[in-house]
Automatic annotation (TrEMBL):
It comes from Salix udensis. InterPro entries: Peptidase_S8/S53_dom (IPR000209), Peptidase_S8/S53_dom_sf (IPR036852), Peptidase_S8_Ser-AS (IPR023828), Peptidase_S8_subtilisin-rel (IPR015500), Peptidases_S8_3 (IPR034197), SBT (IPR045051), Subtilisin-like_FN3 (IPR041469). PANTHER family: PROPROTEIN CONVERTASE SUBTILISIN/KEXIN (PTHR10795). Keywords: Hydrolase, Protease, Secreted, Serine protease, Signal. GO terms for molecular function: serine-type endopeptidase activity. Belongs to the peptidase S8 family. CDD domains: PA_subtilisin_like (cd02120), Peptidases_S8_3 (cd04852). This is Uncharacterized protein. Residues 542-639 form the Subtilisin-like protease fibronectin type-III domain. GO terms for cellular component: extracellular region. Residues 68-468 form the Peptidase S8/S53 domain. Its main location: secreted. It comes from the Eukaryota.
């Protein structure tokens, strides 16, 4: 039975760089009057009026100084900070992913054409522009979260985060502190996990009360064809509006063969700034490698553009699953095997030539989902006894609303600026989970945030569209430090069977077990909470979280036992049987192995014993699944045996 979701509006809040209210993704057609419980405001700015808000976009705040201005000779101009309006498209894009209205015939200059809609298109939106051109200050983030809670939001979506190199601990991280206060008021906080992958320990926003999201690709790709003068064709990843065609080929050169004088080969191969000879490059298609992370694709593009090249081919195995938007510059990114063949053609041919065709959609792409190369990985830097990231969601080549501003070289000749764009990042994955959470909330109004989080985690998908286990960007099977518990499956999460309820007391105990002084915990939480008598790090594994992580299972010591409690949200009379999936050598036992629920008995506890005497050193991954014939409730685990 389908419900009319127009009767179940929920509020959102997005910490972003503002919003472009004129986008059709934020129209309020079919949405009723704003409920009286909403306490927010629509702040005016120098380019933003109260009339820019509507029944969809119900709130907008910004935190720049209204009096502050730029001085440009004798003219004073208001800063972009002095308005809720988006100045770079990030806020508009992420907001529409989560809660954008349905918009027919949306595309990015013809690519990814179709109907655009957010994860929960009937939800309302409030924007809190906590970031400015100067960055995102901690005090402003805390102020904005506090405002959002007071205004009456249900879900906070934060697609920002610090570099993994500069993380602060939980009681010194403004996002963690503000999110804790939100959790105390049963307001869910969903955060992007960061784009510092594939390095381990690079995950950010990893406090247990935060829903931390990794990024995956989707079953659609964008590719450009590289046609060589010898008749061979190679497919390269790209979002390119090339003006080249099959009728004319251009000279083809490897970067090291068109190097500027006194330039090291390693630099010219990677198309370093000032590494190419403009006279040698002009009119040619240039091939560059991509084995120096200090020179991103955007820089390579600018280098060959500045040298008046006709196009760019980049050889990169790792990043080719994330198409680069080169605008009107003819571009393709090929893997190592194709790259070697192209370079061999250059070396073996007196006058090598090529052309690059415009990008096209590649539907039904396989395998998908896979972990994005850039998606930050766990374990968490501050504790490995909580599994992070929590979950994975689409974050590669996502079409969503954008500021329709024209940048030189970004719009195909004869086209108007697009109101939609294709972007990638965990910033795009985060609002997918936000939208999914609101979708579940629209059906289950009385569920707590931890129940919704648990429902999404225990029903997540662990297989791709080929039927095989999820893979990472290196084409190996992915593990929970890359995907969390798996890829979101919102429809399955509507009926999870059992949920793990994590309470504020669990999180307060977590802080005690982590080692914070009781007075600091009381000050941050504004409670009189008393820490348990025994406070050791390993007890963190025992808080009632919808996954299990053990940072140190000593093979020479007795087995470690973890306790969990589940709440039945399915049929009142149900019996669940446990199934263990564990790697060879790791002994995992469940007590009891059968859970029986009857009317009036909705909460039952069980224990999981882990013994690593015969297990392999390092992390061992697996799961305990409870099955009643209809529901599969999967509890993923990561156990580090030493």
């Amino acid at each position: 039975m389908l419900l009319d979701l127009r009767n179940f509006f929920e509020y959102y809040v997005f910490f972003a760089l503002g919003i472009w209210p004129e986008s059709p993704s934020f129209n309020d057609d079919g949405i009723g009057e704003i409920p009286s419980r909403w306490k927010g405001v629509c702040m005016e700015g120098y380019d933003f009026k109260k009339s820019n808000c509507n029944r969809k976009l119900i709130g907008a705040r910004y935190y720049g100084s209204i009096q502050r201005t730029y001085s440009n000779n004798m003219t004073h101009m208001a800063k972009p900070d002095d308005s809720p309006r988006d100045f770079d498209g990030h806020g508009t894009h992420t907001t529409s992913i989560a809660a954008g209205a349905k918009v027919a015939n949306a595309s990015y200059h013809g690519l990814a054409g179709g109907t655009a809609r957010g994860g929960s298109p009937s939800s309302r939106i409030a924007i809190y522009k906590a970031c400015t051109l100067d960055g995102c200050s901690g005090s402003t983030i805390l102020k904005a979260i506090d405002d959002a809670i007071k205004d009456g939001v249900d879900i906070i979506s934060i697609s920002i985060g610090v570099s993994s190199l500069f993380q602060s601990d939980y009681l010194n991280d403004p996002i963690a502190i503000g999110s804790f206060h939100a959790q105390q008021m049963d307001v869910m906080v969903v955060c992007s996990g960061g784009n510092d992958g594939p390095d381990l320990y690079s995950i950010v926003n990893s406090a247990p009360w935060i829903f931390t999201v990794a990024a995956s690709n989707i079953d659609r790709d964008f590719q450009s064809s590289v046609l060589l003068g010898n008749g061979k064709t190679f497919q390269g990843s790209a979002i390119s509006f090339s003006n080249l065609n099959r009728s004319r080929y251009y000279p083809l050169a490897f970067g090291e063969d068109v190097a500027a004088k006194f330039t090291p080969i390693s630099e010219s191969r990677n198309c370093y700034p000032e590494s190419l000879d403009t006279k040698k490059v002009a009119g040619k298609i240039v091939v560059c490698t991509d084995n120096d992370l200090n020179i991103p694709l955007q820089i390579k593009k600018l280098v060959v553009e500045d040298a008046r090249a006709k196009g760019l081919i980049v050889v990169s195995e790792d990043e080719k699953i994330v198409p680069f938007d080169s605008g009107t510059v003819p571009f393709a990114e090929v893997g190592n095997l194709s790259g070697l063949q192209i370079i061999k053609y250059i070396n073996d041919t007196k006058n090598p030539t090529a052309t690059i065709l415009p990008a096209r959609d590649v539907p039904r792409y396989r395998p998908a989902p896979t972990v994005a190369y850039f998606s930050s990985r766990g374990p968490g830097q501050y504790t490995e006894n909580i599994l992070k990231p929590d979950i994975m969601a689409p974050g590669v080549t996502i079409l969503a609303a954008m500021i329709p501003e024209q940048e030189a070289g970004s719009v195909p000749l004869g086209n108007k600026p697009s109101g939609y764009a294709i972007k990638s990042g965990t910033s795009m994955a985060c609002p997918h989970v936000t939208g999914a959470a609101a979708f579940i909330k629209s059906f289950h109004h009385r569920w707590s945030t931890s129940m919704i989080k648990s429902a999404l985690m225990t029903t997540a998908t662990i297989y791709d569209n080929t039927g095989k286990p999820l893979q990472n960007s290196s084409h190996h099977f992915a593990n929970p430090h890359e995907v969390g518990v798996g890829e979101i499956n919102p429809h399955k999460a509507l009926n999870p069977g059992l949920v793990f309820e994590t309470t504020t007391e669990d999180y307060l105990q977590f802080l005690c077990y982590y080692g914070y002084p009781e007075k600091n915990i009381r000050s941050m939480s504004k409670t009189n909470f008393n820490c348990p008598r025994i406070n050791i790090d390993r007890l963190i594994s025992n808080i009632n979280y919808p996954s299990i992580s053990i940072s140190n299972l000593d093979r020479h010591k007795p087995a470690q036992t973890i306790k969990r409690t589940v709440t039945n949200v399915g049929c009142p009379n149900a019996t669940y049987i446990s199934r263990v999936h564990a790697p060879v050598g790791l002994e995992v036992k469940v007590f009891p192995n059968k859970l029986a629920f009857i009317e009036g008995l909705t909460r039952v506890s069980f224990k999981v014993l882990f013994d690593g005497k015969e297990a392999s050193n390092g992390y061992n991954f697996g799961s305990v699944t409870w099955f009643d014939g209809r529901h599969s409730v999967r509890l993923s685990f990561a156990v580090n045996v030493e």
